[in-house]
Structure formats: C-alpha cells, structure tokens
Amino acid sequence: MKLRHKLLTSALIALAAPAAFAQSFAELKATGLLVPGSCTLALTNGGIVALGAINEIDLDPQAETALPAGSVSVDINCTAPTKVAAMITENRGGSSTRTGDASFGLGKTSTGVSIGFYEAVAKTPMADGAPSTFITAPNTVGNLWASPTGDAFLEHGTGRKFVAFGTAAAGPSSVTTASLDIEVRPTIAPTTVLMLPAPETIDGSLTMDLVYL
Q1: Among 14, 73, 85, 179, which residue's CB has the most CB atoms within a 10 Å radius?
Q2: What is the per-residue pLDDT for 8?
Q3: In the chain, what are the domain boundaries?
Q4: Strand 205-212 and strand 2-8: pairing?
Q5: Backbone CA torsion sign across 48, 53, 58, 64
Q6: Sign of CA dihedral 144, 150, 156, 157
Q7: CA 136, 95, 184: angle at the middle one, nearest 5?
Q8: Contacts of residue 33, Cβ cutoff 8 Å, sequence gap at least 6
Q9: Which CATH superfamily is domain 2-7+36-212 in?
Q10: Has this prediction a pTM greater than 0.90?
Q11: What is the DSSP track for 71-94?
C-alpha cells in the first residue's frame, strides 16, 4: 500500500465579461495567495505500508478478516510559520468493499473483484515540538473546521478530507514543523467472494496534498 504525496499551490487568472449585453470594456483579474514560507511533506518508508504475503488459509471464507495495522509517519517542514492542511484523495475509487468516505479501497483482483478496504487514522499530532490537536473540514471555504473526537479518521470524496493542526474555535494554526502518524487498518473480503486461483496484489493508494490556507 503506497501513500503518495505532493505539494499543491494555486493561482487563477479569470476573464470577467457581462453575460446580458455587450460592452466596450472587460476586466482581467489575477488572483493567488502569498504565503510566508514554503512547506515540504515527507513520509517514512516512502509512504509504503507493507502487509506482506497473506495466506488464504488465514482468511475467513465467509466473513471479512481484519489484518494487523501498519503505520507511517508524516513530517511537515516549512521555512516560516505557515497555515497548511493535508488534502486526502482516494486513488482506488470504486474498489472498497465498505461504503463511506472513511473507507479506502485495496484494489481489485485480476477478475475485477474488490479485495477489501482500509481505514487511515491520523494520530499523535505534534506542532513545533509540542502536542497539538487535529481539525478537519470538507473544504477550506468558510469556517467549517471541527475537532474530531479522539483520533482523526482520514476521509475523501465529500467527507472531511482536509486535516490541519489547530482548534475548531481558532481554526488552523501556523506551523514551522509538524508531524503525525497514520495508522492503516486493512480488512480483506471473504475468500468465497475473492475466489483466489492465483496470487493477487493488494494495491491501496491515497494521496496527501499540502494546501496553503
């Protein structure tokens, strides 16, 4: 299972023109965001959670089998105090055997059968060397930040796919260094559903994008 990462910035050039009638002028707008520093994101072990070879005899033929959890650590480093959030994208859409924005797919077999799902749980938030708290939001427009109860389950799609450090009342905090652990909890479909005539590759993947706020 590979968690990939990349750095995201944005700028927009828009052309505004009247819709109802023609006129002799038009307005061009150049918009963007000035940030005090740049940030990088790194995952341990290249973002790979190795589940190893799983023997079919260790899987339940009639029910889902939960596998031991694995984890990766995430480090964020900025050149100056900066407000950032991680945006989560599911890269194996349509392959999860459980519905919901907190469930990520593990890919499909060569015959097109979904292998299972996993949950990705953000834990142990640290910001500038001190324990911190997570806040999550479905988007970064408006004040939609909320503090999850306990650990923060990563979500995608229409869920609370933005994760930042801060409080619900004050919103995201500026950080220079920050870190968290992501615990990956995989579950495999019943073997009577999978029908495994040959080895199959577990292939879960999500992307974490750093977004400047």
Answers
A1: 85
A2: 30
A3: 2-7+36-212
A4: parallel
A5: positive
A6: negative
A7: 50
A8: 9, 10, 11, 212
A9: Fimbrial-type adhesion domain (2.60.40.1090)
A10: no
A11: EEEEEEEEEEEEEEEEEEEESSTT
